[in-house]
Design a protein that fits this description.
The structure is a single chain. The chain is built from four helices and seven strands; from the N terminus they run αααββαβββββ. It is of the alpha+beta class. The strands form two sheets. The protein has a five-stranded antiparallel beta sheet with strand order 3-4-5-6-7, with helices on one face.
């Protein structure tokens, strides 16, 4: 009986619950930080892919932007009977994004799924605004041929095994041509 009283009165092992609590708290913090970084990596990757697709669209307009028939620099125009007509090519940005990001079209969305079939992210509502430079704009950066784009991105968020409301952001990007000579 005396031995049991000594064991119960002993302070050895009293920090064990504190160590478990600190370890669990650190694990939760690590899970939160790693989920945040996962969201930022996906958003950055989508932004880079949209930027690349926009640059490709601007490059598709190169032959019209600097058409050799007219004088001076200008935007995307084609000569017609005594005048110039605007000629813009919006390209297939969704097609480029599908190829770059490995997306598949599903119900108005372009989605990326993992090997288990779980949704990684989805994009939709692409808007592209091509701003044509005026005729004979010269070397002014403010009068350049420019394409601005925006797309909606949704990424499911999970924390500690629970599914939370998804992260939804608008990814905006811009690309343009400036005459160099």
């Amino acid at each position: 009986m005396r031995r049991i009283k000594r064991i119960l009165a002993s302070k050895r092992g009293s920090s064990f619950p504190l160590i478990v609590a600190v370890t669990l708290a650190l694990a939760l913090i690590f899970c939160g930080v790693s989920e945040y970084f996962r969201l930022m990596v996906i958003a950055q990757g989508v932004r880079d892919a949209v930027q690349s697709a926009m640059i490709s669209t601007v490059n598709d307009n190169y032959d019209d932007v600097y058409h050799g028939v007219r004088e001076g620099y200008s935007g995307a125009y084609q000569p017609t009977a005594g005048d110039f007509e605007e000629s813009l090519d919006y390209g297939d940005i969704y097609g480029r994004l599908d190829k770059l990001l490995g997306l598949s079209a599903s119900g108005g969305y372009h989605e990326k799924r993992n090997s288990d079939g779980e949704l990684e992210f989805r994009i939709w509502s692409l808007s592209v605004d091509i701003e044509n430079a005026p005729l004979a704009s010269g070397d002014q950066a403010s009068n350049r041929f420019q394409a601005d784009g925006a797309i909606e991105l949704e990424v499911p968020v999970s924390f500690a095994g629970e599914l939370l409301p998804p992260m939804r952001i608008t990814v905006k990007t811009s690309a343009g041509f400036i005459p160099r000579f």
